[in-house]
Amino acid sequence: MKKWINLFVVLALMVLVISISVVGAPKTWVVGFSQIGAESEWRNANTFSVQHAIGEDPTLLLVFSDAQQKQENQIKALRSFIARKVDCIAFTALVETGYGPVLEEAKRAGIPVIMIDRDVAKEDRHLRLTIMGSDFVEEGKKAANWLADYLKKKGLDDGKKQINIVELQGTVGSAPAIERKKGFEEAMKTHPNWKIVRSQTGNFPRSEGKAVMEAFLKAEKNINVLYAHNDDMAIGAIQAIQEAGLKPGEDIIIIGVDAVKGAFAEIMAGRMNCTVECSPLL
Fold first, then answer.
1. Which of 37, 46, 47, 41 has the alpha carbon at shortest distance from 263?
2. Per 3-state DSSP, what percentage of the chain is helix, strand, and coil (rounded to 5)?
3. Mean pLDDT of the chain
4. Which end of the chain is more exposed for a tag (fewer CB within 10 A), N or C?
């Protein structure tokens, strides 16, 4: 009996300490989350991840806004969060630049800002609390290093013959587009016979990836490799390659980034060769 009484006292003290520690904390924390849109499989999974995580916690209330791929919509949403006096702001930057003034406003209001997936420009990073995201430069390096190993195993690269690469870039000015390109090109320095013969933005959705790849195929007669900054553009490009009478995955090596379900289906079908993982579960 004494043992149970002592245990009860200990538990009661623990509850008291915990209760004292949260005095003054709001019963519900309001989180304003601004997503850039729904341009890809990855983005939809990322939105679900954030919504699900916040929804699971009864102390959190989510205020969600979809910017529909427009920075002006996002800045407007961030200002509405500030006016509402939310406890925290989370958002994905459509592009790196242009957020300084609104981040200053959030800082003056005492509202911490957490970046999700994509960061703001270096000069504005002191205005946000932190970022939960991936190393996009490393993803670009991994894509290039995989290609080097694959070409070697297949006997397709003797170090002299030119390897022609076309690149589907993400949204101009966005962190993944800038850094995935940077990482890939850094790894290319040890392969002087590799050449990016065409590089153009496809903005991340499948439809634009297909349209840009169609233009690449008309302009270039000898394409060895496609490096796409995300899987959705790669999948769109695969459609364009098939319609041109070529075999994706064989006539043209296909590399994407994200590791979405659709990419694995293409790999299993032999139409895509590689996808670099970028987890949307943040």
1. 41
2. 45, 20, 30
3. 92
4. N
Nearest one of 169, 231, 161 to 192, comparing CA atoms: 161
Q: How far lies 213's CA from each of 27, 199, 223, 264, in Å?
A: 52, 10, 11, 20
DSSP label of 35: E
Write the single-letter amino acid at 91: F
DSSP 248: B
CA distances from 232 to 10, 88, 203, 229, 244 (A): 55, 31, 10, 9, 19
pLDDT in tens, 61-99: 999 999 999 999 999 999 999 999 999 999 999 999 999
In sequence order, the 6+-apart residues with CB closer than 8 A to the CB of 128 are 103, 113, 114, 115, 119, 120
Q: What is the pTM of this model?
A: 0.86
